[in-house]
User: What shape does this take?
Amino acid sequence: MSGLPVSLIQALREVVGEAGLIADVERMHSYLADWRNAYRGQAALVLRPASTEQVAAVVRLCAEAGVALVPQGGNTGLCGGSIPDDLGAQVVLSLTRLNRIREVDAANETITVEAGVILQRLQEAAAEAGRLFPLSLGAEGSCTVGGNLATNAGGTAVLRYGNMRELTLGLEVVLPDGRIWDGLRALRKDNTGYDLKQLFIGSEGTLGIITAAVLKLFPAVRSLTTAWVALPSPRAAVELIGQMRGLCGDRLTGFELMSRQSLEFVLHHVSGVSDPFADAHPWYVLIELSDTQPDAPLNDMLEQGLGEAFERGVALDAVVAASEVQVRALWALREGISEAQNHEGPSLKHDISVPISRIPDFIARTDQALQQAFPGVRIVAYGHVGDGNLHYNVSKPLGAEDAAFKAQSEAIMQVIFDVTVNFAGSISAEHGLGQAKRDAARHYKDPLELELMRSIKRAFDPAGLMNPGKLL
Ligand code: FAD
Ligand code: 2HG
Ligand code: ZN
Assistant: This one.
């Protein structure tokens, strides 16, 4: 039984209908754990409203009854933000039925979409209008626009187009008391005071429920070239990205770093992939250049850049994709890391950032500190070099017990975060704090910033019913 008053359940059912209310424990199951099973909770109910008005009515009823809500999109988040606690009194509010593309304004280069639209569908709608929506990440077939906004998602094209923050012009939000804030402005300039939408972006569901957004579109890409390059070190990657940016400017749209360990996991666990080179190399980057002109001379630029890199010993080997199939094959090596690491037992995921220039020293220092304190742990380092954002992930030593490794997870995280902060970095660059890094943020973030954040939380959600226990 849900534990909620029968009259409240009845009122909620009247708002969302039979199709929008799940009370059955079996049917709730997939809403109560993340895909890795790293976070699991209980809920009184799962609600699936189908319109902004329904969301508003649900939020109002829950606010009056003092019931906490946990917003959920595609449930692909990596820090437990969309999973309720284990007391069974919270209600999961799934936004996946708010899935309409409301408007494409090609002349204004904008698209207005509801929060439950899957990212891939948004990309396709933009393409149908001859435009590009550039946010791109491994979970794009399942994650939703609402989740992308609530986590300020990053991904593999931030280098050129920015995070979700930079891609958003307007928002519609249901506030914690059930009022609807219509901030769906499609303006590139609006200097009328505080930029409220930016408060909701990256707020991980703690300030309100995002129901729709106006997002920026860009010219479609008409030329593309993709290369897989072997490197001796992370320092070579930093040199190479500087060189390629100098040569190609904004045509450099992807620059993803991977360690040999990361690639080995993918080769071992992901079917249908193969190593592009006969020899093993310590590090790799996936480089992508793109242009809005058809037949842009991207291969010439790439060849020039790589030629110079070979001469200076910055690059060791390279392969350039010769077809669409090969482009996909190279990206499969990069995008497969997350899944592959999952097959190696519990994985500790980190999404730190440091200034790009400091990436090599960060990796060297953290590798050393970890191997000294936790001999044998397998470091799976990869990420978005152009954003200074590394997934400095850790898998258990070969043969170690899962439980013994999990027991060390806090201590491992502390080593990584201590070095991160020493290098003037951030403990979360793109996944957010959720429940995984909430306590670490309390420790590492400036107390004044935390105090300001708490005041904002109190101003929007004085009763603390929006995703309690997350972020703050
Ligand atoms: P959920 O997981 O459902 O929720 C995430 C958070 O947002 C929760 O706190 C939830 O309460 C809140 N929320 C969801 N919807 C709303 C709403 N409408 N209103 C208010 N709050 C809401 N992330 C990156 O940034 N870059 C990557 O490159 C990347 N790659 C990934 C690759 C894989 C294989 C996987 C599994 C995940 C990856 N992620 C990445 C993480 C994840 O996909 C993103 O965080 C994504 O934005 C989450 O979207 P979602 O719809 O699944 O949100
Ligand atoms: C990526 O860049 C994602 O692939 C996922 O942010 C990172 O699984 C991870 O640790
Ligand atoms: Zn990432």
User: Anything to note?
Assistant: The pocket of (2R)-2-hydroxypentanedioic acid (ligand 2) is lined by residues 78, 138, 338, 349, 391, 393 (CB under 6 Å). Residues 223-338 form a domain with the Alpha-Beta Plaits fold (CATH 3.30.70.2190).
